[in-house]
Inverse folding.
């Protein structure tokens, strides 16, 4: 499983900025071993294990980008129309060794290979046909409406770098260069638990002081979106020995174990102690809100080579979501061999005033709407408690307030990250 040292998550500062957290993950966590070859149709969501090199050029040959007439640019008059003899006809896919001679045009269709010697194509809408001749206007640039072999990707170039998380466009490129299979990293195996004496299975018997488990479903869905194989290990009660036993057993066969709840300093918060008893634990007080301290560690199973990374998230579902996308996701990507992701929050106008503490990154749940002038603006959800799940279902994404910002006024611009951006 994951090759982690006891102190890989150790950090001595007071509040760890997010950028430092990302750097620590890059420096101290190594991707898991294990590569498998998958057919292209099953490759979406997987991570390329090596650079994928183009065995052929894309496109493989010079071809026409339009339906029209292929010509030799050197034949064209700079002063007015040029009359050319239509000497042939080339459909897409037609094998031909047609070569164009001076004074000729070849009728050509989109995707057809350019005749040898032709370098420019007129669109059929722009020419005048008269029997076997065609009159083409002046002013078209050499190379117009033509696509050149390798202009998309030369043969031998890197089509997809190692660590690419394959999505539809990457699979399409691999297919376009003729590949049928790709070497990808094996899927990560992740175990999840919920903790808490008050937490019960949805659909199960619920006594008056119990709540249905939301976090395991949140975590399973987030992890599966990122391509992990999830083992759902259920709900653990707030019992130190039971927790330690369950966590120890879970390390076997898993790269990562994620729990929610029980990590703060209440009397029923035993996750810290349980992890310390069976492995090593550090607390990352990350400079992020929402998201109280996140427990990071390594847990060891019965046999010596069975170890897994551990992340203990807070219990409140919104805090679970934010700490997952900002802390667990970078760790998961690193373990999976994926390149680090750079998020680009898009500036949107805020419709509200907001104050925050300096030196921490803050995330605010917002909906987007059109302002009276038609510009997009962000509206804060009226409830900002970390336990308010509808504040996630009724909004579009998170505004990201940078560390150095302390207040914004209506009309200011703040970076917006959609839930889709955050979860991918
Ligand atoms: P804790 O960190 O264990 O004190 O939990 C903080 C809050 O999150 C408490 O109100 C818990 O009831 C709630 N909570 C913990 N686990 C879950 C869960 N799996 N689903 C929904 N809410 C939870
Ligand atoms: Mg609890």
């Amino acid at each position: 499983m994951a090759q982690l040292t006891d102190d890989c998550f150790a950090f001595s500062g007071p509040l760890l900025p997010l950028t430092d957290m990302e750097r620590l993950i890059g420096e101290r966590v190594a991707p898991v071993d294990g590569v498998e070859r998958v057919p292209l149709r099953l490759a979406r969501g997987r991570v390329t294990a090596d650079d994928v090199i183009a065995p052929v050029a894309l496109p493989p040959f010079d071809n026409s980008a339009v339906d029209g007439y292929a010509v030799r640019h050197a034949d064209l008059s700079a002063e007015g129309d040029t009359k050319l003899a239509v000497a042939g006809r080339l459909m897409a896919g037609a094998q031909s060794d047609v070569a164009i001679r001076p004074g000729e045009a070849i009728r050509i269709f989109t995707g057809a290979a350019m005749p040898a010697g032709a370098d420019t194509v007129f669109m059929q809408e722009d020419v005048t046909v008269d029997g076997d001749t065609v009159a083409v206007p002046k002013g078209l640039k050499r190379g117009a409406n033509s696509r050149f072999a390798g202009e998309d990707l030369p043969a031998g170039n890197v089509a997809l770098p190692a660590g690419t998380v394959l999505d539809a466009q990457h699979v399409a490129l691999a297919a376009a260069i003729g590949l049928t299979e790709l070497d990808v990293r094996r899927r990560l195996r992740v175990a999840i638990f919920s903790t808490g004496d008050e937490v019960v299975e949805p659909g199960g018997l619920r006594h008056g002081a119990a709540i249905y488990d939301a976090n395991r479903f949140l975590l399973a869905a987030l992890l599966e979106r990122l391509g992990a194989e999830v083992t759902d290990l259920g709900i653990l009660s707030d019992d130190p020995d039971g927790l330690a036993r369950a966590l120890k057993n879970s390390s076997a066969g898993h790269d990562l174990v994620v729990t929610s709840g029980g990590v703060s300093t209440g009397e029923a918060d035993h996750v810290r102690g349980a992890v310390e008893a069976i492995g090593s634990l550090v607390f990352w007080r990350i400079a992020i809100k929402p998201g109280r301290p996140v427990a990071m560690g390594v847990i060891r199973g019965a046999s010596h080579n069975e170890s897994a990374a551990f992340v203990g998230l807070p219990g409140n579902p919104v805090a679970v979501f934010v700490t997952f996308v900002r802390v667990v996701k970078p760790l998961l990507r690193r373990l999976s061999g994926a390149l680090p992701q750079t998020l680009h929050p898009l500036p949107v106008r805020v419709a509200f005033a907001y104050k925050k503490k300096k030196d921490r990154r803050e995330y605010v749940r917002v909906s987007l709407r059109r302002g009276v002038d038609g510009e997009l603006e962000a509206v804060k959800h009226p409830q900002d408690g970390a336990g308010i799940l509808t504040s996630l279902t009724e909004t579009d994404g998170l505004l990201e307030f940078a560390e150095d910002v302390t207040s914004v006024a209506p009309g200011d611009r703040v970076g917006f990250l959609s839930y889709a951006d955050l979860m991918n």
